[in-house]
Amino acid sequence: MALGAVASAVGLAVDDRVLVDAPIWAKPFKFYLSFTVYGLSLAWMLAQSTRGRRTGWWAGNVVVATSLVEMAIITGQVVRGKRSHFNVETPFDQALFTAMGITVIVLWAATLVIGLLLLRTRFADRATAWAIRGGVVIALVGAGIGFLMTLPSAEQRAGGMENPDVIGAHSVGVPDGGPSMPLTGWSTTGGDLRIPHFVGMHALQLIPLFLIALVVLAPRSARFRDAGLRLRLVRVVTVGYAGLVALTTWQALRGQPLIRPDAVTLVATGVLLVAVAAGVGVALRRPPAPAPVQQKSEPRESEPSFRSKEFTA
What residue intervals traverse the membrane (predicted)? Predict the structure, then answer.
């Protein structure tokens, strides 16, 4: 996937073709990058699993195989100058899009298997367990949002669906293409289901990264050495992140651009931010759990004392 991202970057530099108002190599470039971090995250999480290692190995290989098939179709369609997603212009294009749908379903199911294995795994650190399990569950929800894009849009249904060239869309309320945000390509005139899809999928990396940041800060701050505090903060962030996925999904389904929220969306965003801030405040105010007092027993005559000269070194 990393090599594919490099090849797509070269394509962006040397191929000036445009498809659906975007550089034709932009889609494979973003997909290759996304699959790179997705694969690395799943590989690390599988390494933490202590149960069903063989099942996890097979599930990981299914993710690899289906990802490769997905990217082979996307890249092949770019070479042909055709859309990969939602394209039913010819029987061949429709067959490729159907194959992509099947691979995505299988990939989602394999990720679900990995998630179930991680739910059964016992972690020594409860904050790590929350970060990994929460990341996987939210990522599965985010991936599932992609299935909404395959449904006919309101405009397509209104057109009677007679011999359509395209079925499905990632935009809501406006046609795909048109004015969009730089880099992401998200619509600035209507809703865009790619936003909650992206946000949800990358919970797989961002929530564990938040925990890693707390662990890195622990040697510099006594507060973050408290495992209970790290657990509470990870819980707050996980719930808040799930709320963000729900909020962006709701906004997209209402046909509203991310950068142009209405008053209702702003109020909902404010409520979410206040709730997360309150949760963080409660987590920080709670006193740390007292360290267990270890009873010091006097060494027996037959036992060596670690204070004796023989053990000083």
Answer: 29-46, 58-79, 99-119, 131-151, 195-217, 229-251, 263-284
CB 192 within 8 A of CB 169: no
Q: Which two tokens stand for residue 128?
A: 């790590």
Segment 117-139 shows an average pLDDT of 89
Cα–Cα distances in angstroms (integers) from residue 116 to residues 124, 132, 248, in the given order: 18, 11, 26
Q: Is the dihedral of CA 243, 244, 248, 254 positive or negative?
A: positive
Phi and psi based region of residue 241 (left: phi greater than 0; alpha: psi -120 to 50; beta: remaining): alpha
92-106, 154-168, 263-277, range with greatest mean pLDDT:
263-277
Mean pLDDT over residues 200-227, rounded? 89
Identity of the amino acid at 276: V
pLDDT at res. 49: 80
The band of 258, judged by pLDDT with boundaries at 50, 70 and 90, is very high
CA atoms of 187 and 230, how far apart (whole Å): 37
pTM: 0.81
How confident is the model at residue 156, as a pLDDT?
66
Amino acid code (one letter) for 112: L
Task: Kindly give the pairing relationship between strand 191-192 and strand 18-19.
Answer: unpaired
**Using CA atoms, how far apart are residues 177 and 196, in angstroms rounded to an integer?**
18
Q: To which residue do tokens 């946000």 refer? A: 199
Written as one string, the DSSP assignment of 13-40 is: HH---EETTEETTHHHHHHHHHHHHHHH
**Sign of the CA dihedral 216, 217, 218, 219?**
positive
Strand 22-23 and strand 171-172: the pairing is unpaired
Residue 165 in this model has a pLDDT that exceeds 80: no
pLDDT at position 184 is 85
Mapping DSSP to helix (H, G, I), strand (E, B) and coil, where does residue 257 land?
Answer: coil
Contact of 193 with 148, CB cutoff 8 Å? yes
